[in-house]
Structures are given as C-alpha cells and as structure tokens.
Amino acid sequence: xDTLSPLHAEHVALxxxxxxxxxxxxxxxxxxxxxxxxxxxTAAGLFDLSHMGEIGVTGPDAGRFLDYALVGxxxxxxLLGARYTMICAEDGGVVDDLIVYRxxxxxxxxxxxxxxxxxxxxxFAERTAGFDVTVEDRSPQTALIAVQGPRxxxxxxxxxxxxxxxxxxxxxxxxxxxxxxxxxxxxxxxRTGYTGEDGFEFFLAAGLAPALWQAFLAxxxxxxLVPAGLSARDSLRLEAGMPLYGNELDRTTTPHDAGLGxxxxxxxxxxxxxxxxxxxxxxxxxxxxxxxxRVLVGLEGLGRRAARHGYPVVLSTADDAPAIGTxxxxxxxxxxxxxxxxxxVSPEVSAPGTExxxxxxxxxxxxxxxALPFYRRPR
Length: 379
Known about the structure:
Elements: E1 3-4, H1 8-13, E2 17-21, E3 24-29, H2 33-42, E4 44-48, E5 53-58, H3 62-69, E6 82-88, E7 94-104, E8 107-112, H4 117-127, E9 134-137, E10 142-148, H5 152-158, E11 162-163, E12 177-182, E13 185-190, E14 199-205, H6 209-220, E15 225-227, H7 230-239, H8 281-288, E16 295-301, E17 312-314, E18 323-332, E19 339-345, E20 355-360, E21 363-370
Parallel strand pairs: 1-3, 4-15
Antiparallel strand pairs: 2-3, 4-10, 5-8, 5-9, 6-7, 7-8, 10-14, 11-12, 12-13, 13-14, 16-19, 16-21, 17-18, 17-20, 18-19, 20-21
Helix pairs in contact: 2-7
C-alpha cells in the first residue's frame, strides 16, 4: 500500500488527480498540466515534496564520512550551505543524486530521491565503519513543501505565521538555507529548487504541514499561486535541463556520462595533502580521463510530435537511418511552444546544430541538437 503524504487530505480536498509514485500517493495534477506549469513560470506554484527522503548525518566524523560515502567534498560545506552531489557504486554508477545541507559543524541533512531513499540509507549503513557518525532516517516525521516561481519571495513574506527568525530571505543565496519559524515552530528554508525558477523549500514537522500549506494558499492567491502536481514539476525540470533519476541517471550511468563530472571531487585530500579515498574513486578517475561512449544532449523538436522516454534517436528521417542514441526525457514545452527532449547519443553527433531524428511510434520526427538548458529564467 502506498504511503500517504502528511498533506494527503489537502490534495483530496482540492480535487487532485492522485497517482502512485515511488511508493507514495501523490498529486499528479489539480487542474491542467499546462496551467500549473505556466503558473510557476509567470507567478508561483505550490508543491508537496514530502515523498523525498530526509536523512540526518550527525557526529564528530559527519563531514569526513560524507566525503567518503559521496563523490563531493562535503566537509568543506559552509554552515547553512547546500551542495548538489551524488552517491556512486564502486564501479562509478550513480546510486542517487542528492542535495546535502549543513545545519551545524557536525550535523548534515541529506535529501534523497523518493525512489532511492531506502537504497541510500542502506548504502550509508554499509559505509559507516570506522566513522564516529550516526545516520538517522528523518523522513517519517518530516514534510517538505516548495513555493516556486517569480513571486515566491512575495508569497513567503505575506504568509501568516511564517517568521524569518533574524535572517533575510531576500538575501538568501541560491543553494543555501536559513532558519525560520512557523507558528513558533522551527522550519528550515532552502533556495534549491527543481523548476528553473526562483523559489523556496520548507522542511518542517509533518504535523505542521497542513497548516503551512493552507497559509501559503491563502497568502499566495493575490499573487497567482496555484497548487501544482508531479506532471508540471516534470515538464518544468525538463525545460530547465535538470536530470531525473531513472531517466538521465541510473546505475549504468556515471556522473561524467550525464555531463556532471564537475560534482566528482578528485581533489579531496587529508590534512597531510594525501588523496582521500571515496567509494567509486578509482572508476570515476579513469572515466574522467577517457573519451565518452555517449553524451547527454538537448533535442529541440522541429515537428509537433514529442519524443518520450525510451524512444530511439536515429541519424536522419530516412527509414533506414541507424539508431545512434536513446531519449531519456521528452515532452511538449509549454514555455517554448515546441517539443523538447534529453537524450544520450554518440559523441560524433552531439554538437549543437546537428540535425537528427527520433522514432516516434514508427514515424521519424526531425530534431536538432541544442545546448542545455532549454530555458533560463529572466534575471
């Protein structure tokens, strides 16, 4: 049976279409995918992200443990900073992509994808030997709500009961966090969204989540805030060129394959300047020095039919054109007005401007390779 979000009753009351996702019952949409997508680009959307996994890592060796368990250099993360990173297997395959927040000197919050929450917990348990560290699953008692869109800051400041606790949300940097309170209770607020827009994520006790959700809806109505489901979240992150685990990332993919080799920190060293070991280091070092077998690219649809996950990318629209890649994510772009997709293709056809095709249910649809992301928000 699927787990219910702390906000399940709110979604039902709003008439959301619910779907099973990674073992949870979550809202797919409330009204229409395009309306919710457009609201986030032009005003703001309210998302329930309580299905994400929250893992606490605490203790004197917390930073050193994360340096070993993950590919990033987390011990150097500043207080209330955030960092995108990955956990990899020994062969370099991506187990999950993560965001890590540093609460205190010895306390970190690791946010995992819902589908990999238990896998990451198990991997952490296997990697704690020799470290004075405690790993705690905080997901059952934690809710996560996001307000995304150009009017997110105005909505945050208009929300009754939400106080900035001595910090200024306006000056909060991207990939950073700050403490706030809601009805006097602590809330961790981050600026690390997944839509390509400005916005904030609110970690709080699960029991407080319905009240905060309702307060956001009330405060946000004059600003055009609407609740938004998983479908809009997916089309938004696709336009922003952000990877999704299970599509662009999986156990057969290294960070380098996905164009994210920058998150692999081979320059991690100990106090004596010696390279720090971490899980997957040897494989990732070798992969970083080799020529890629495939490259993740953006594809701009030149026709009207959208490519979808798993569709073959072929060399041309000719019936006998050979396959040279596979679509990982694809959909019509509400913002741009034409189909977009991400795909792994052979390096020789990965240059922007290269014209290819996608086999869309037996019909060869023309596409053009473009640089990612497809969309950048106005500054």
